[in-house]
Amino acid sequence: MGLFRTLSFVIIAPVRGGGIYGGSAESCTITKNSATNGSGTWQCSVTNSIVYYNAPNQWGGNPSFYQNSCTAPHPPGANNITNPLQFMDGAAGDYRLSSISPCIDTGSNQTWMIHAFDVEGAPRIIDRVDMGAHEYTPSKSMTHRLKPIPINNIRHTRFISPVM
Fold first, then answer.
1. What is the pTM (predicted TM-score) of this model?
2. What distance in Å separates the CA atoms of residue 91 and residue 70, rounded to the nearest whole number?
């Protein structure tokens, strides 16, 4: 139990919570886990995360609450999607989002993300935060730019540098 931020989980558990058992997940990718019940999460609060391709089920237990996340079937909570998320190459363990992923720019910006980074060291917020542990970057050679970032209805401007 605890708070997990910007992590990717691939775990096998015997009974419940293959990815996470209890606690909270924010901006995490929880995939390819297995457990008898709640293969992805069990009794968790999940925000801006991807919980997909876990077997035999994605989530379970009460209280499981999801917000701005991608999983199926549709969980309790607001602004969730069930569309297949389109990893770059999930079969090979590449859980970055492809350019056609419905998880791009669909998360909810949080104050803690202003100076945070994704699992590969890219800024956590480029426009609107993406669901999951990886922030989609169209090109490693993107140019420097100033970008307004809305957080809790306040507009911040950060200098976004390229990821090399």
1. 0.77
2. 18
